[in-house]
Design goal:
The protein has 225 residues and is of the alpha+beta class. 18% of the residues lie in helices and 14% in strands. It has five helices and eight strands. The chain has helices at residues 4-7, 84-92, 113-118, 143-157, 179-184, and strands spanning 101-102, 123-129, 135-140, 166-168, 172-176, 193-196, 210-211, 218-220. The chain has an eight-stranded antiparallel sheet, sandwiched between helices. A hairpin with a 3-residue loop joins strand 4 (166-168) and strand 5. The protein starts with a helix and ends in a 5-residue tail after the last strand.
């Protein structure tokens, strides 16, 4: 199970988000996001805002991975995006995420586990992308609060796939109905990790199991649908 209520059910999330725009209107599409070619994802040029990097130069303007210390924790070394445009462009470099579409706030409501997760007030923006909008991206303003809320949502779910979770960077998260899309973001080249908050999670030897920001959760590159 890929925690579908979180990553794909629009009605479970949209009512709780306060959205801003997905990138500046005057900026050209980067990395294929909003453009004509998904394959362009690995060849982004320019930047879409003062805090964004590019896939070719991820540290430009302090963007993706721009402030990652070489001797930092696993979380501190994760990519960061600052904007939805940059996050979508980064994801699009490893799995199709084009175009990115915002989910309007207040258009739906839900009482499922997602509501408890998002009521923490840590998600500032949500968008969908990929084939039929099967991939979701969340912009996060407080990573520790987000991880705490995600852990509570997993507990409320009452079980599920102990080898699954949500893919995270420092300030954004990604989930998808596609297991291939999830796996693509966990490769060493992509540099993202999965937040797993299952108490019985025990990956095979050789896979990462790093401390997350909250007790009871870990960051890992192991994922099985």
């Amino acid at each position: 199970m890929r925690f579908k209520p979180l990553v794909i059910t629009i009605s479970a999330t949209a009512a709780l988000l306060s959205l801003t725009g997905c990138g500046g209107g005057d900026n050209p599409p980067l990395g294929g996001v909003g453009g004509d070619s998904v394959a362009a994802g690995a060849n982004g040029t320019g930047d879409g805002g003062p805090n964004e990097g590019t896939l070719d130069n991820p540290t430009k303007n302090g963007g993706v991975n721009g402030s990652a210390p070489k001797d930092g924790t696993a979380f501190q070394k994760l990519p960061k995006a600052a904007t939805m445009a940059a996050a979508a462009r980064y994801v699009n470099g490893f799995t199709p995420c084009d175009p990115i579409k915002a989910i309007p706030a207040g258009s739906h409501s839900s009482t499922g586990p997602d509501e408890k997760l998002l009521q923490a007030g840590t998600v500032t923006e949500r968008g969908t992308c990929g084939s039929r909008g099967r991939t979701s991206i969340y912009m996060i303003k407080d990573a520790k609060a987000f991880q705490t809320a995600f852990k509570a949502a997993i507990a409320a779910e009452g079980g599920g796939n102990s080898n699954s979770g949500i893919v995270v960077g420092q300030d954004f998260a990604m989930g998808s109905e596609s297991s291939d899309a999830m796996s693509a973001l966990l490769t060493p080249q992509a540099g993202l990790l999965m937040l797993n908050c299952h108490a019985d999670f025990n990956p095979p030897s050789g896979f990462r199991k790093e401390p997350a920001l909250v007790k009871g959760c870990v960051l890992t590159d192991y994922y099985v649908d």
